[in-house]
Specification:
Number of strands: 20
Number of helices: 7
Strand content: 25-35%
Distance between the termini: 54 Å
Shape: globular
CATH superfamily: Ribonuclease Z/Hydroxyacylglutathione hydrolase-like
Helix content: 10-25%
Radius of gyration: 18 Å
Number of domains: 1
CATH architecture: 4-Layer Sandwich
Largest sheet: 7 strands, mixed
Strand order of the largest sheet: 4-5-6-7-8-9-10
CATH class: Alpha Beta
Structural class: alpha+beta
């Protein structure tokens, strides 16, 4: 049975004993808790947790694990005429989730913003016959190699008509967002993961190298990320966590937040 890091939710290969450590958590963008490294497995996880669902708008559903496990991110299931797309991933994949997803048409493609949310992507891919699309700059963080994984290069990757992954970097070298052209009745939506972090304030986003350790990104990186998003219109931003979304003026919020972030870094 595979081993799962209890702090970040990353899965590791089936070995007689769990690894000595979790490289994801030992990196300064994550952390090892004071209680030390701990491990679980899919059976134990499913015995204590379930996946909850919420409709965010037509053709877009949120999936989140209850009670919270590891980092606590949500996954987004986007239904398109070209097939369903899962954005980011959860560690828990139970029988109820499999049945519900299959009833909704399955999953054609899985795209993940950055390594903290790789979780059990291999098992989701196997359950639905999907490919997993990751940026090649983050190849080293895959701890369970799998033939379903497809690495892409460059700054843009079209998953379906009107659905494009944009590599922005920042939090990780390959950190990405997903642009959904037809979201919000054609005004556009951005699925941002931790690449562009939606703040508790409804009109603010942020950009960090390490979120748990509160380490900033340099101004030059923020300028580049904001410039890369400027040509892509979006009204709404769906962040990594339940309830975290910018509901209006999303494009402007990113540009204004980036400008303010840079002002503070530069002491202006």
């Amino acid at each position: 049975m595979i081993h799962i890091c209890a702090t970040c939710g990353t899965s590791f290969p089936d070995t007689p004993a769990p690894p000595q450590s979790c490289p994801i958590c030992e990196d300064e963008r994550q952390y090892v808790p004071r209680s030390g490294q701990a491990w679980t497995n899919p059976k134990a996880l499913a015995a204590r947790h379930v996946n909850g669902w919420r409709q965010l708008e037509p053709n877009l559903l949120e999936i989140h694990t209850q009670p919270q496990f590891a980092i606590g991110q949500r996954a987004l299931l986007l239904m398109t005429p070209d097939g369903n797309i899962l954005w980011d991933c959860l560690t828990l994949l139970d029988e109820a989730t499999i049945a519900l997803v299959r009833a909704l048409g399955g999953i054609k493609a899985i795209a993940i913003s950055h390594p903290h949310y790789y979780s059990c992507m291999q098992d989701w891919a196997a359950a639905f016959g999907a490919h997993v699309y990751l940026h090649s700059a983050d190849r080293e963080w895959v701890k369970r190699p799998d033939r379903a994984i497809r690495f892409w290069d460059g700054d843009e990757f079209k998953l379906a008509d009107g659905v494009t992954i944009l590599r922005l970097g920042g939090h990780f070298a390959g950190a990405a967002v997903l642009h959904w052209r037809d979201g919000v009745q054609g005004r556009g939506a951005l699925f941002s993961g931790d690449t562009v972090q939606v703040a508790p304030h409804t009109q603010k986003v942020s950009f960090l190298w390490s979120y748990p350790n509160m380490m900033p990104l340099p101004a030059v990186t923020i300028r580049r990320m904001a410039a890369a998003l400027e040509p892509w219109p979006f009204e709404r931003i769906y962040g990594a966590f339940a309830g975290r979304q910018v509901t209006e003026n999303g494009s402007a919020v990113v540009q204004q937040s980036a400008a303010r972030y840079i002002e503070l870094l530069e002491g202006r």
